[in-house]
């Protein structure tokens, strides 16, 4: 057996992910040491309650409630507590003491990333966070390293397993959003407060991280436009299927050129219609996928488990081996690159395609009236599909449903069009407005 110098590793948190990190280290520690060229010595595991049940056996002498004390003297600190505090303070303390830090904490990176990266750079340490986006799927390193020689144009990501599970069940089983959310929660996919999933806060955090990396620009979480899936109805899911689409919650990061010809970044999260033939339409259950469109590489898709203790532990341990290798080689960590410093564009300047459903009076002149509204707002219609909704009871006029697909239009023009349609005499109701993303 090769004798290596030992690196001292402090683990903060032994919940779903942390306990599995310990289990994998116990199982494969020697192999990981060979890969890293250094012994990995787990010096302690900080938790809140030493007697709490664990999903893996952790030697009792390793457990402590003194996280701050554990950090002192560690070469590498692994933060798997979650949330903003005390995680932020503990990570800053670890970095300031010169330790490399590994975290899976998307909320923290999306909120305090610049402060943490600056602290790491100042002391020549490195902050690793592969597990913070899409769990087990390697996406941080591919964006930062493998695609460093290319130009990323756009990322379309299914980065929240809970909402993908819900939308998939609504599509395949006809379940209600509430039923499917209850299942996703029971299966352990949802956050402690599932509002973070269904209102897309979790996906927005991941979008901020992906956009920052892809465009070398610090994208604050507040700049990410966000719509959750709570307004999505079974009727919309059914109508999407009939039209050859599936509804997915997408995190979209895009390098755009604005009306004045200047480059900018858009980061946004919303439910969108995806053509059934697009690779993202085939992402079922709680799986995640990140579809990257790059100038030279073309289209790439990264697919796999976006959550789960043991799956996420894989990404954390990959970071641990990288951090250990860095210690062996020596030298400062690689700083985050934000030299792009592109402006973050508001949602109003985004252009995309839309599908709008209208309940209209089934009478002569309606189509022309509706077409005029689109024309007046500069939104070009691509497709129109009409079905009779009701023949009309005595004394009432018949109604029809019009499903109108548009060519690319700006969010601002589309919003004005929808307002004008809603107040048009021939339109009884605007029943659905969904964006269309991804080509077939
Ligand atoms: P858990 O809630 O399961 O575990 C949190 C752990 O942190 C527990 O062991 C808890 O101790 C400990 N802890 C909490 N507060 C403190 C404190 N003040 N001092 C010391 N220990 C503390 O979280 P997860 O394992 O699910 O998630 C960890 C991180 O990984 C989060 O940032 C999460 O967003 C991220 N992540 C999780 C994924 C998943 O599938 N679970 C997927 C991708 C990322 P005790 O056990 O005693 O209560
Ligand atoms: N609640 C998250 C999800 C966990 O459903 O994807 C992984 O970040």
Describe the secondary structure blueprint for this structure.
Blueprint: E1 6-12, H1 16-36, E2 39-46, E3 63-64, H2 67-71, E4 76-79, H3 87-96, E5 100-103, H4 106-123, E6 127-128, H5 140-146, E7 152-158, H6 161-172, H7 177-186, H8 195-198, H9 201-215, E8 225-226, H10 234-242, E9 245-257, E10 263-275, E11 287-294, E12 298-305, H11 309-329, E13 351-361, H12 366-376, E14 381-390, E15 399-406, E16 409-410, H13 411-422, E17 427-436
Parallel strand pairs: 1-2, 1-4, 2-3, 4-5, 5-6, 8-10, 10-17
Antiparallel strand pairs: 7-9, 7-11, 9-10, 11-12, 13-15, 13-16, 13-17, 14-15
Helix pairs in contact: 1-11, 3-4, 4-9, 6-7
NADPH dihydro-nicotinamide-adenine-dinucleotide phosphate binds at residues 12-18, 46-49, 52, 67, 80-82, 86, 104-106, 131, 135, 307-309, 312.
Mean pLDDT: 95
Query: What's the architecture of the largest domain in CATH terms?
Result: 2-Layer Sandwich
| CATH fold annotation of the largest domain | Dihydrodipicolinate Reductase, domain 2
Small molecules bound in the structure, each named once: NADPH dihydro-nicotinamide-adenine-dinucleotide phosphate, L-homoserine
Order of helices and strands, N to C? EHEEHEHEHEHEHHHHEHEEEEHEHEEEHE
Shape designation: elongated
Written overview of the protein:
The chain is α/β, with parallel strands linked by helices and 440 residues long. It has 3 domains: 4-135 and 310-329, NAD(P)-binding Rossmann-like Domain (Rossmann fold), CATH 3.40.50.720; 140-306, Dihydrodipicolinate Reductase, domain 2; 350-436, Alpha-Beta Plaits, CATH 3.30.70. 35% of the residues lie in helices and 27% in strands. It has helices at residues 16-36, 67-71, 87-96, 106-123, 140-146, 161-172, 177-186, 195-198, 201-215, 234-242, 309-329, 366-376, 411-422, and strands at 6-12, 39-46, 63-64, 76-79, 100-103, 127-128, 152-158, 225-226, 245-257, 263-275, 287-294, 298-305, 351-361, 381-390, 399-406, 409-410, 427-436. Strands 7, 8, 9, 10, 11, 12, 13, 14, 15, 16 and 17 form an 11-stranded mixed β-sheet that branches. The longest helix has 21 residues, at 16-36. The radius of gyration is 25 Å and the shape is elongated. 45% of the residues are buried. The mean pLDDT is 95.
């Amino acid at each position: 057996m090769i004798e290596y110098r030992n690196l001292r590793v402090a683990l903060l948190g032994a919940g779903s992910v942390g306990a599995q990190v310990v289990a994998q280290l116990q199982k494969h520690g020697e192999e990981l040491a060979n890969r890293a060229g250094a012994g990995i010595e787990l010096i302690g595991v900080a938790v809140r309650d030493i007697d709490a049940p664990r999903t893996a056996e952790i030697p009792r002498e390793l457990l402590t409630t003194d996280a701050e004390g554990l950090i002192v003297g560690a070469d590498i600190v692994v933060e798997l507590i979650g949330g903003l505090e005390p995680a932020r303070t503990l990570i800053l303390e670890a970095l300031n003491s010169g330790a490399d830090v590994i975290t899976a904490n998307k909320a923290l990176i999306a909120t305090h990333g610049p402060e943490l990266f600056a602290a790491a750079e100042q002391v020549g340490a490195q902050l690793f966070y592969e597990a913070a986006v899409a769990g087990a799927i390697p996406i941080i390193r591919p964006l930062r390293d493998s695609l460093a020689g290319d130009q990323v144009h756009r990322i379309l990501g299914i980065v929240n397993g809970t909402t993908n599970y819900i939308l998939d069940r609504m599509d395949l089983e006809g379940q209600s959003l509430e039923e499917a959310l209850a299942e996703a929660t029971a299966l352990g996919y949802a956050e402690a407060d599932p509002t973070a999933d269904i209102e897309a806060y979790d996906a927005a955090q991941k979008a901020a991280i992906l956009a920052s990396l892809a465009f070398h620009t610090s994208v604050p979480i507040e700049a990410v436009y966000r719509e959750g899936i709570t307004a999505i109805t079974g009727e919309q899911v059914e109508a999407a299927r009939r039209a050859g689409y599936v509804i997915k919650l997408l995190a979209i990061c895009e390098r755009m050129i604005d009306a004045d010809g200047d480059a900018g970044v858009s980061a946004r999260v919303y439910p969108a219609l995806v053509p059934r033939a697009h690779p993202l339409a085939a992402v079922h259950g709680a799986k995640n996928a990140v579809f990257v469109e790059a100038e030279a590489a073309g289209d790439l898709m990264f697919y796999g488990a976006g959550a789960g203790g043991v799956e996420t532990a894989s990404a954390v341990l990959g970071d641990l081996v990288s951090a250990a290798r860095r210690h062996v080689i020596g030298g400062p960590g690689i700083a985050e690159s934000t030299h792009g410093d592109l402006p973050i564009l508001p949602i109003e300047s985004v252009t995309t395609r839309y599908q709008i459903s209208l309940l209209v009076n089934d009478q002569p002149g309606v189509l022309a009236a509706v077409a005029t509204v689109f024309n007046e707002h500069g939104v070009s219609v691509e497709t129109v599909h009409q079905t009779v909704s009701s023949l009309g009871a005595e004394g009432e006029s018949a109604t029809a449903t019009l499903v109108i697909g548009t060519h690319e239009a700006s969010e601002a023009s589309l919003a004005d069009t929808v307002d004008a349609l809603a107040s048009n005499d021939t339109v009884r109701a605007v029943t659905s407005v969904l964006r269309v993303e991804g080509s077939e």
